[in-house]
Automatic annotation (TrEMBL):
Highest taxon of the lineage: Eukaryota
Domain RRM: 3-79, 94-169
Region described as Disordered: spans on this chain: 172-253
Residue ranges, compositional bias (Basic and acidic residues): 175-199
PANTHER family documented for this protein: LD29830P, SERINE/ARGININE-RICH SPLICING FACTOR
Gene3D superfamilies in the record: 3.30.70.330
Protein name: RRM domain-containing protein
Keywords associated with the record: RNA-binding
Length: 253
């Protein structure tokens, strides 16, 4: 269990000493580091390390506590995902977390509510239907729109004041599967490219193998299912055999 917590949404009026005194009530603090928020919103963030994981776990209960003129958000500290794709970093910077939503709220209502901040590109509603409230993630077209959405914190949506914070993760979106016709057209195009790039007759022994490998790469790249993949390769092999080409010795199939 981790011994470090992250504290976000800290008022600019709060000093490290004030924050340390507050969190030392829960256990011995070995290190406290406070910095300006990386989001450029004028607030501060801090990481607080305790001597024991139990103290850090207890500190999580301070989330939602008012300090100065802000409501603290306390979570387990996690290392930055440095391996994250730059595209995902961009998506995350344009995404906000929205909490305290009524069970009856819909994604369309959320999109309309935040539409005044800027174009909304995606809304993902989540949470346990058996609980009193739910939460959502809203992705905007621009970082500026996401920043504007933070000012909606406390505004009434339905019959509840919403909680709005920067999202710590990009939205996990469903993969859109291509229709069968479009997928097969790409397979056929890959086949034609392989035929056009075939070597001269003295390299015929390699052509079949290279053609199949190239076709497999093309199929993998467009997300066809394993069953469709095998069928497409078999169809291609059949057409090549009919033309006197196709896999020969050393074939991967």
């Amino acid at each position: 269990m981790a011994s470090t917590v992250k504290v976000a949404n800290i008022s600019p009026l709060v000093t490290p000493d004030i924050l340390r005194r507050m969190f030392e009530f829960l256990g011995e603090v070995t290190e406290l580091v406070m910095n300006a928020s990386p989001h450029g919103d004028g607030f501060k963030e801090a990481t607080i390390e305790y001597t024991t994981p139990e103290a850090a776990q207890t500190a999580l209960h301070l989330s939602g506590t008012e300090l100065g003129d802000r409501i603290l958000l306390v979570t387990h500290a996690r290392p930055h995902p440095l391996h994250l794709d730059p595209t995902k970093w961009d998506e995350m910077s344009r995404t906000v977390y929205v909490g305290n939503l009524a069970q009856t709220i819909t994604q369309d209502e959320i999109a309309t509510f935040f539409g005044s901040c800027g174009p909304v590109t995606f809304v993902k509603l989540a949470g346990d239907p058996t609980q009193a409230t739910r939460y959502a993630f809203v992705e905007f077209a621009t970082i500026e729109a996401a920043q504007a959405a933070l000012a909606m914190r406390g505004s009434i949506l339905g019959d509840r004041p919403v909680v709005v914070n920067h999202s710590k993760n990009p939205i996990s979106k469903p993969v859109v599967k291509e229709d069968e016709g479009s997928a097969m057209r790409k397979v056929e195009e890959a086949s034609r490219r392989q035929e056009a790039g075939a070597h001269d007759d003295d390299d015929d022994e390699m052509n079949g193998d290279e053609g199949v490998q190239g076709l497999e790469m093309a199929i993998d790249g467009i997300g066809i299912t394993e069953t469709d993949r095998e069928e497409a390769i078999e169809t291609w092999i059949g057409s090549q055999k009919g033309s006197g080409q196709g896999p020969r010795k050393g074939s991967i199939l």
